[in-house]
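Narrative progress, year one. The postdoctoral researcher (J.K.) led the effort to move from monomer predictions toward full complexes, under supervision of the PI. The following entry was the first complex the group processed end to end, covering 676 residues in total.
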Amino acid sequence: MFPIAPELHAAEWLNTAKPLSLQQLRGKVVAIYAFQMLCPGCVSHGIPQAKSIRATFDEKDVAVLGLHSVFEHHAVMNRAALEAFVHEYRIGFPVAIDQPSPHGPIPLTMEEYQLRGTPTLILIDRQGRLRLSHFGRAEDMQVGALIGQLVAEAAPQQAQCDDEACSIR
Amino acid sequence: MFPIAPELHAAEWLNTAKPLSLQQLRGKVVAIYAFQMLCPGCVSHGIPQAKSIRATFDEKDVAVLGLHSVFEHHAVMNRAALEAFVHEYRIGFPVAIDQPSPHGPIPLTMEEYQLRGTPTLILIDRQGRLRLSHFGRAEDMQVGALIGQLVAEAAPQQAQCDDEACSIR
Amino acid sequence: MFPIAPELHAAEWLNTAKPLSLQQLRGKVVAIYAFQMLCPGCVSHGIPQAKSIRATFDEKDVAVLGLHSVFEHHAVMNRAALEAFVHEYRIGFPVAIDQPSPHGPIPLTMEEYQLRGTPTLILIDRQGRLRLSHFGRAEDMQVGALIGQLVAEAAPQQAQCDDEACSIR
Amino acid sequence: MFPIAPELHAAEWLNTAKPLSLQQLRGKVVAIYAFQMLCPGCVSHGIPQAKSIRATFDEKDVAVLGLHSVFEHHAVMNRAALEAFVHEYRIGFPVAIDQPSPHGPIPLTMEEYQLRGTPTLILIDRQGRLRLSHFGRAEDMQVGALIGQLVAEAAPQQAQCDDEACSIR
C-alpha cells in the first residue's frame, strides 16, 4: 500500500562521520527536511521545526536528516556556504547534499521524490515506507501527531540474511 | 502501572446536551484542559492549543474537554460570564464547570487531581488511565507527539455486561 | 483642521485616585485604548500594545488610558469582573468605564466618538485635538511612529486663567 | 552635542543605480541596518524590521539602507551570494557592501562606527548627526517612536555653495 522510499542521492554529508542510508535506518522513523539555505520559509519555520522534532523524539525512535536540495542559485549555495549556514544556525543533525543532476537544475533526490520545492517534510516509517511528503508550512501539532503515530507502529521483524543463514531479529 | 483517572466533578456543562463522563468516553483518548477565563496563560496558549488538538485529531479517536476550574475571583467567573467567554473565543468542545468546594476556594476536580494551577493539560488513554498532568505551557510538537502515541495504542477489549449477559466487544 | 476631542463619559475609574479629564491632560499626547475584557483581539494585541506604549514613552509626554466600552454581554463585564481582569493582566494605567446609555447597548463615549468596535486606538495631540481613531489591529512600528511625531509637536502656549488673571505659561 | 556620522565605506552597492552618500541624503532621517546574510538574528528580526521601517515612513522623510558588514565566513558571503539573498528575501532598499579591511576581518565602516556585531541599527538625523547605534534586537514600538521623533525635527537650513555662490535653501 505504501511504497518503499527510494534511497537518497547524496553527493556529500555534513554532521556525520560516514554517509547514511535509509536501509541502515530501517527500524526507525525517518524525518527528512528538504531545504535550501537561501529559502526564507525553510529558515523561518522548516529548520526550527526540524530541530523541534529532534528535541521531541528519542534518537532510537526517530532519525532527523536534512537534505540540501539546491534548484536555484547553485553557484552560491555550495558546500562551504552550507557549512557556514549549518554552523550559524546550530544544526546538529546530519545533512545530505542532494546530488546535482548532469541534465538540469533539479538535483537527483528531489527529482526522484518529485518534490515541488522547499521546504518539504518527508516521513518514512519503521518499515522504510514513504508516508508523507509535505511541501510548505506544516503545523507543529500535526507533525508531532503524525510522527507520534509512526513511532507507535511496530518495527518490522526483518529476516536478516548473511552468507550462512537467515534469521528473524 | 498507570492509575485510572478519577471522574470529573462537574457542577454543570456547556456545549453538550447531556453531562459527559470519562466512563462513557472509555475507548478514546481524552484531552482535558483545566482553565480559568481570566487566566492570561490559558487565553494566550492553553485555549488555542486545545482548539488545535480538536482540529488535528479525529473525534472518534480523541475527545477534547474544557474544565473551568475556578480557584480565584469566584464571583465574576460565573456561568453567565463563562458562556460569554465560550461564545467570544469560539470554543466548540464541551466544557465542564468544576464543582465548587464547600470548604475552600479549590474546586473538587482540581483538588482530586491535585492540579497546581491553570492551564493544566490532562491526558487520559483509551483504557481510562491518567497519562499526563502538565501545568503551564507545553510545546505543540510534544503534545501532538504524545497524543499521537496514545491514539496508536490499542483500545481495550471491554467486557460489556447488561442484564442478560456479558460480551467482549 | 483637527477637531478637539470630546471629553470621555466615564461612569467610574480604576487605577487612579481621582477621575481624569482630557482637559487636565492638555499638553500631553493621550493614547486611549477602547476595549472590552471579553474581546479576543483586545486581549491578544490591544492590551499588549497599550502596555508597550506605556513602556516606550515618558509619562510626562504621553498619557495612556484604557476605556472599557461594553456594548455586549453587559451583565458579566461589570466593574467587579473588570477589576479582576485588570489585576490578572497587570494593567497599570488608568481605565475609565464608559458610561452606559439609557437608550441602548452602546455606551456614551463610544457613541460620541462613533467607534466601530473594540479594540480602537484613539490618539489626541498636545493641543487636545483628535488625530487618530483606528479600529482593529495596528502595527507597533506605525503606532510608535505616529505617537513619536505627536510627541515632537510643540505643546500649546495656553492661556491659563484663574480667578485673578490669565497668563501664558 | 551629537557627532556628525562618518561616511560609509562601500566597496559596492546593490539596488541602486549609483553609489549613495550620507552627504547627499542630508535633510532626511537615515536608518542603516548593518547585517550579515548568515546571521540568524539579522534574518529573523533585523531585515523584517528594516522592511517595516521602509513601509511605515515616507521616502521623502526617511532613507533606509542595508550595510552588509561581513566579519566572518568572508569567502561565502560574497557579492553573488548577497545578490541571491537580496532577491530571495525581497529586499528593495539599497544595500552597501562594507569595504573589507586589508588588515583584518572587520570591514572599514564597521570599524569606524565601532559596531559590536550584527544586526545593528544606526539612525542619523536630518542634520547628518549620529543619534543611535543599537546592537541586537530592538522593539518595533521603540524604533518607530524614535524615528517618528527624528522625522518631526526640522531639516537644516543648509548653505549650499557652488562655484558661483552660496545660498540658503
